[in-house]
Design a protein that fits this description.
The chain has about 270 residues and is an alpha+beta fold. The protein is built from seven helices and six strands. It is globular. The chain starts with a helix and ends in a 28-residue tail after the last helix.
Length: about 270
């Protein structure tokens, strides 16, 4: 499947280049969430060295990798670490397209979910975003928020069964070796074997400094109570804006086998 995707993308790019459209194009590859590592959901992925898997609020579940290519980019050949949310892509692409005659930059930021990040991506300026609400889920009692480099987590999914770190299967990855790749996540030293886990999100909030500990080894809730309280207060403010989810119950009529084995609209 990956080989087929690679070939298809190559065809699209060649078509753009043959028509001279590549000079005014922006190509983005991105994920929507972390991968289902360690056979989660009978699948395979690799989030190492980050903690957790898809459908968890650990960095392995919410931090995605992406790349962007365009002749319109001014500062290229680099690894971007600016904070960005997936909802930022729409206003960012609108800004890159310079649709000022259709929608103003003020409207982009005021009327559309997300924040225009084109300057951060193109010129390597600081991110226009300082926080990301990762989730408020009253049904499963899980909550997470990032503000600048701090992140707070309350509760966990699957009763904590997928809260660990999962090295790539079939390899012998060590902390020392994982630091060598140019775009690798740089983690604080891991906990020593047998060290009691300081973060138990089913019992209380956990606080992490992602700038120094993106692998979420060290819970700072007890060491930085003022920061913890500020994060809790901010989460409370977000909670006042919560609206009921619009999820509908499963409908057997939507199953792929009823539509030529493809996912398709059925209503």
């Amino acid at each position: 499947m990956v080989a087929g995707l690679d070939e298809s993308v190559g065809r699209v790019y060649r078509s753009l280049k043959d028509r001279g459209m590549d000079k005014n194009s922006v190509i983005v590859f991105t994920t929507d969430n972390g991968g289902p590592a360690a056979s989660f959901d009978y699948n395979y992925a690799n989030n190492w060295p980050l903690r957790g898997v898809k459908d968890t609020l650990w960095e392995g579940g919410v931090r995605g990798s992406a790349f962007i290519w365009s002749p319109l980019l001014k500062n290229t050949g680099r690894v971007s670490t600016q904070l960005m949310h997936i909802s930022d892509w729409l206003p960012t692409i609108l800004s890159a397209a310079e649709l000022n005659d259709v929608i103003t930059r003020a409207d982009i930021n005021n009327l559309i979910d997300g924040i225009d990040q084109w300057s951060a991506l193109s010129e390597n300026t600081p991110s226009a975003r300082t926080e990301v609400l990762l989730n408020i889920d009253h049904d499963r009692n899980v909550y997470a928020l990032r503000v600048k480099n701090y992140k707070i987590i309350l509760g966990t999914t699957y009763n904590g069964d997928w809260d660990n770190w999962y090295p790539p299967e079939g390899t012998n990855v060590t902390y020392a070796s994982m630091k060598q790749a140019p775009a690798a996540v740089k983690c604080a030293p891991p906990l020593n074997p047998g060290t009691p886990q300081s973060c138990m999100p089913l019992k209380g909030p956990c606080l992490f400094d992602l700038a120094n500990d993106p692998c979420e080894y060290h819970n700072l809730a007890d060491q930085q109570p003022e920061v913890l309280q500020r994060m809790l207060d901010r989460l409370t403010i977000y909670n006042t804006t919560v609206v009921p989810p619009r999820n509908q119950p499963p409908d057997p009529a939507g199953k792929p086998e009823r539509h030529g084995y493809v996912w398709a609209p059925w209503k």
